[in-house]
């Protein structure tokens, strides 16, 4: 077997050195009834060619986003990633290393994390950031629990504009930890209802911008109301490219900003692995979850980096840790950081402007289709529309034309009474031809009376 | 070829071999590399993009006016920056990486290639399921392998890493107790040798954590367990093979006692790689177990993630598995958000979307490559390699549990260093100079000065011998006259020992404008 270097002669020699008659003797502590003598009922080993053939066959049963006009967003976005990003993350020294427990031989990873933290802090307009979380949704849950530690209050108010799967994950995880999660009803302009829901028991307010319907808003007033009640303001962003065009969470008064970083450097990959961004104000850093990289010096006084403040973490604090998180999303954070270094401020701003431009073109084209009502007033690269037919049926009909028209909101939240709402995103990868094909398909479907 | 040597000395002169510093601070192939913020590219970009044809006037005052503070690099500069940084990392592709409990094994590149097929990489999590049947089929096949290898009837694929899987398992257990009117069970028992994530996760879910004592031979103390199991206990969390690298001999009795007390048995599957293909946790009475795909099934560790932590569940816990559920129907596979039927009582959702698909592809490719026969050999070779190291190093060092074989990792304590004034840390740092990544240090906590060595099955005997030779030489040095020298190690790494106390006392977590920039290298005098 190509991944196993020991030869039968090696094994015999090593068993002799160990003083065991056979390998079975090494498993003697396993109860005999639990030792399987026979091979499991699974295929035998296979060569690279055979494995590749099977996986290519499975991949071919999928329709990649790039195979035609494509408008899905809702928390995951199709962007172009420079070829050098994927090349660099496959360097052995990045790909096949582990958490930098021994900083003397992990400065590569550590310096990248320090740069990543600085980039994330800059993007979100906050002072400090951690070395990444699993993804945006779990980062959101962790932010809510951090607010509980900071304020010693138990209630979290979630805007109805928060991605329903983020809200569900937060409800599952933070509720398990003892928090009361108040989810406001889904609404296009959900932010309007948030302030009224804040009271003296509120630990935090969670608002997403652009929200799940694509609505970009200034949440400064909500932050002020939260602060007046002694609560923390958490701003969620699922499209990290928007930081290049829209006011930052920090500028609008966020105490904690969490975001999904997939858009920068990482492919869609059917939902994961992604990279959660997590930033906060410096005064709360000791309540922050996840790993942190910090600057220090070595024995010769040279600048270097180490994992730090680990007294917050599970391997030291055990049941008193700020979080149970052990791993982060290192390689995805590396991809994010490389892509962002390539973009720089100039490139990110250009990319964000380009996304917005494509979305404006998308908006104009679908608004011109008879029967389409555009619901999103101000947007970054994503809009919601309402049509006379169910969004699921609409997507199905467009699919027959080779167009993947977007995400029916009901797929995220079937109980919101929004079966007729469709979410559509455009990015720099969306062409005018794609938009024209979508408009034609929508037009045909809506005039043809598909139900 | 020979011409290149004309006029040049073919071997260095003695004087050249003396400790030599370069004129400008360079260190041969090892380049010093400033932070991206010090490279001065505030207006640069390495990405060419067309100009937008519509403006952002519609956004009004939502537009970000202030500078963000992000430097840019041209493509050649970016390549240099990251390649230079990469050369400061140890990696499994470079040499043995024996971090106990972390399972640093070879990462096949076929798996990387497969995960990058457009049909997987360029697939949106919310596109119509009819257009993602291959992805769902792969998840179904992966689930089949995981269920078969563990002997468990169900699996939740979505958890994003081991600790996330632990959380998923405990939430299923909590939901099952609540459903059975057993919500008053508030305690989780873990052995003193447990991974830190176990008590952290239990506390996270609101449980009280109580410790189970350990016997002198490194196993769960059955009498102590029996005494602590009571009507308030919701679950036990036991790693098997345990963190001392030993199989829990009394595992069947452990699970019997646990179930008799009305509690569930959560198994931390971090060490499943030691028994895969030979032993099914389902046959040991396990109710829930996470599987670190990045350990047993070799998805790359990537400098600290991403991982993947699917959780296998027993018949009793399966109905509580989190959404989405992957189901096969007449029209193919579907993702169910609201499982119907009397038995379905999903406890909630672990994350957005459906899990670490990119890791599923890699793990499945690894499973197919090995097959049932290869995976069995994986466990055997991992265990043989660890026992070989234990046998060889016992010549100079003291195994924490000398009696009997270990499983996939060899654990030593520091009693052999007594009186030498040299610590486990010194030894680990000295190992760096010998070209190896250190073993896991000071874990498990139950063993003084613990050194936990996990070679994995992908090491050739030659590399094991090279490592043992180095370790034994260091052990002798640690007891020798010149041992003080070890306290300064490493000497040959890109950096000397780093001041971790300083980092924690005055945390500096980001670069800020005005921070000292690296001075440009002085020009050589003309």
Topology as H/E string of chain A?
A: HHHHHEHEHEHEHEEEEEHHEEHEHEH
Coarse structural class of chain B: alpha/beta
**How far apart are the first and last residues' alpha carbons of chain A, in Å?**
55 Å
Q: What would you call the shape of chain B?
A: globular
CATH top level assignment of the domain at 110-366 in chain B: Alpha Beta
- Quickly count the domains of chain A: 2
- The overall pLDDT of chain A, averaged over residues, is 96
Question: How do the strands of the widest beta sheet of chain B line up side by side?
Answer: 1-7-6-5-4-2-3
Describe this structure in words.
The complex is a heterodimer of chains A (about 450) and B (about 525). Chain A folds into two domains: about 70-75 and about 350-445, Aspartate Aminotransferase, domain 1 (Alpha-Beta Complex); about 85-340, Aspartate Aminotransferase, domain 2 (3-Layer(aba) Sandwich), CATH 3.40.640. Chain A is built from 14 helices and 13 strands. Chain A has helices at about 10-20, 50-60, 85-90, 90-95, 105-125, 135-150, 165-175, 195, 220-230, 315, 330-365, 390-400, 410, 430-450, and strands spanning about 130, 155-160, 180-185, 200-210, 230-235, 255-260, 275-280, 295, 305, 375, 380-385, 405-410, 420-425. A seven-stranded mixed sheet of chain A has the order 1-7-6-5-4-2-3, with helices on both faces. Chain A has a four-stranded antiparallel sheet with strand order 10-11-13-12. In chain A, β2, α7 (about 165-175) and β3 (about 180-185) form a beta-alpha-beta unit. Chain A is globular and about 80 Å long. The N and C termini of chain A lie far apart (about 55 Å). The mean pLDDT of chain A is about 95. Chain B is globular. Chain B is built from 13 helices and twelve strands. By secondary structure, chain B is α/β, with parallel strands linked by helices. Chain B has helices spanning about 75-85, 110-115, 120, 135-150, 160-180, 195-205, 220-230, 250-260, 295, 355-395, 425-435, 460-480, 500-505, and strands at about 155, 185-190, 210, 235-240, 265-270, 290, 310-315, 325-330, 330-335, 410, 440, 450-455.
């Amino acid at each position: 077997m190509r991944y196993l270097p020991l030869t039968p002669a090696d094994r015999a020699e090593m068993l002799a050195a160990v003083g065991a008659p056979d390998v079975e003797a090494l498993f003697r502590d396993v109860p005999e009834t639990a030792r399987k003598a026979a091979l499991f009922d699974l295929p035998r080993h296979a060569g690279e060619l055979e494995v590749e053939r099977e996986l290519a066959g499975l991949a071919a049963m999928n329709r990649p986003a790039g195979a035609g006009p494509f408008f899905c967003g809702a928390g995951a976005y199709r962007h172009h990633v420079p070829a050098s990003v994927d090349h660099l993350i496959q360097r052995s020294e990045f790909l096949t290393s582990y958490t930098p427990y021994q900083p003397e031989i992990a400065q590569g990873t550590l310096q990248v994390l320090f740069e990543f933290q600085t980039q994330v802090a800059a993007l979100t307009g906050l002072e400090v950031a951690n070395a990444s979380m699993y993804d945006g949704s779990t980062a959101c849950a962790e932010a809510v629990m951090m607010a509980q530690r900071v304020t010693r209050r138990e209630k979290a108010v979630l805007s109805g504009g928060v991605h329903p799967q983020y809200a569900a994950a937060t409800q599952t995880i933070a509720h398990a930890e003892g928090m009361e999660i108040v989810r406001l009803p889904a609404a296009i302009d959900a932010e309007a209802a948030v302030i009224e829901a804040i009271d003296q028991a509120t630990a935090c307010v969670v608002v997403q911008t652009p929200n799940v319907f694509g609505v970009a808003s200034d949440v400064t007033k909500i932050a002020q109301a939260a602060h007046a009640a002694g609560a923390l303001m958490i701003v969620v962003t699922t499209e990290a490219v928007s930081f290049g065009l829209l006011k930052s969470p920090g500028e609008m008064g966020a105490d904690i900003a969490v975001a999904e970083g997939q858009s920068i450097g990482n492919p869609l990959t059917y939902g994961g692995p992604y990279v959660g961004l997590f930033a906060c104000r410096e005064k709360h850093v000791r309540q922050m979850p996840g790993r942190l990289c910090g600057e220090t010096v070595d024995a010769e006084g040279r600048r270097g980096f180490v994992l730090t403040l680990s007294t917050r973490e599970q391997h030291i604090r055990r049941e008193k840790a700020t979080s149970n998180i052990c791993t982060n999303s290192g390689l995805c954070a590396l991809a994010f950081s490389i892509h962002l270094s390539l973009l720089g401020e100039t490139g990110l701003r250009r990319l964000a402007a380009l996304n917005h431009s494509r979305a404006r073109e998308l908006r104009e084209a679908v608004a011109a289709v008879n029967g389409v009502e555009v619901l999103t007033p101000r947007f970054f690269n994503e809009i919601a529309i309402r049509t006379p037919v169910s969004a699921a049926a609409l997507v199905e009909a467009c699919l027959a034309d080779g167009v993947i028209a977007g995400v029916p909101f009901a797929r995220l939240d079937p109980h919101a009474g929004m079966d007729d709402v469709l979410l559509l995103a455009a990015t720099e990868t969306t062409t005018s031809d794609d938009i024209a094909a979508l408009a034609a398909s929508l037009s045909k479907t809506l005039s043809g009376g598909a139900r | 070829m020979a011409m290149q040597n004309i006029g040049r000395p073919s071997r260095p002169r003695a004087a050249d071999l003396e400790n030599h510093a370069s004129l400008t601070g360079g260190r041969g192939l090892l380049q010093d590399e400033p932070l991206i913020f010090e490279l001065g590219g505030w207006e640069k970009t390495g990405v060419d993009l067309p100009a937008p044809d519509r403006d952002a006037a519609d956004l009004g005052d939502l537009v970000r006016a202030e500078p963000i503070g992000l430097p840019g690099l041209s493509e050649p500069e970016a390549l240099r920056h990251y390649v230079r940084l990469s050369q400061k990392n140890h990696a499994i592709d470079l040499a043995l990486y024996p971090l106990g409990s972390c399972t640093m094994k070879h990462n096949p590149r076929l798996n990387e290639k497969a995960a990058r097929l457009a049909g997987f990489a360029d697939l949106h999590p919310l596109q119509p399921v009819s257009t993602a049947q291959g992805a769902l089929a792969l998840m179904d096949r992966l689930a089949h392998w995981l269920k078969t290898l563990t002997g468990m009837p169900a699996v939740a694929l979505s958890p994003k890493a081991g600790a996330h899987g632990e959380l998923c398992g405990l939430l299923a257990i909590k939901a099952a107790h609540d459903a059975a009117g057993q919500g008053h069970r508030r305690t989780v028992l873990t052995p003193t040798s447990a991974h830190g994530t176990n008590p952290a996760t239990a506390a996270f879910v609101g449980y009280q954590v109580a410790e189970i004592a350990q016997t002198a031979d490194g196993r769960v103390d059955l009498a102590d367990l029996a005494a602590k199991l009571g009507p308030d206990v919701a679950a036990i969390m036991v790693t098997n093979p345990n963190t001392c690298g030993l199989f829990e001999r009394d595992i069947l009795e452990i699970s019997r006692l646990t179930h008799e007390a009305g509690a569930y048995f959560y198994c931390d599957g971090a060490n499943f790689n030691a028994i895969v293909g030979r032993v099914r946790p389902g046959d040991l009475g396990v109710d829930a177990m996470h599987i670190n795909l990045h350990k047993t099934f070799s998805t790359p560790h990537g400098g600290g993630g991403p991982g993947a932590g699917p959780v296998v569940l027993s018949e009793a816990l399966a109905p509580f598995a989190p959404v989405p559920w992957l189901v096969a129907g007449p029209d193919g596979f579907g993702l169910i958000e609201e499982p119907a039927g009397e038995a379905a009582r999903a406890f909630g959702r672990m994350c957005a979307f459906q899990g670490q698909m990119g890791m599923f592809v890699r793990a499945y490719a690894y499973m197919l490559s090995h097959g049932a026969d290869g995976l069995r050999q994986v466990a055997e070779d991992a265990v043989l390699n660890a026992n070989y190291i234990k046998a060889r190093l016992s010549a100079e060092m003291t195994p924490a549990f000398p009696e009997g074989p270990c499983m996939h990792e060899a654990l030593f304590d520091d009693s052999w260093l007594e009186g030498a004034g040299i610590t486990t840390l010194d030894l680990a740092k000295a190992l760096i100079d010998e070209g190896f990544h250190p073993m896991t240090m000071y874990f498990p906590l139950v063993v003084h000065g613990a050194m936990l060595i996990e070679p994995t099955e992908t090491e050739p005997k030659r590399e094991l011998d090279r490592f043992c030779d180095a370790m034994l030489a260091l052990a002798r040095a640690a007891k020798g006259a010149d041992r003080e020298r070890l306290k300064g190690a490493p000497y040959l790494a890109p950096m000397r020992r780093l001041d971790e106390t300083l980092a924690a006392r005055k945390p500096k977590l980001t670069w800020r404008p005005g921070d000292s920039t690296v001075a440009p290298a002085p020009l050589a005098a003309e």
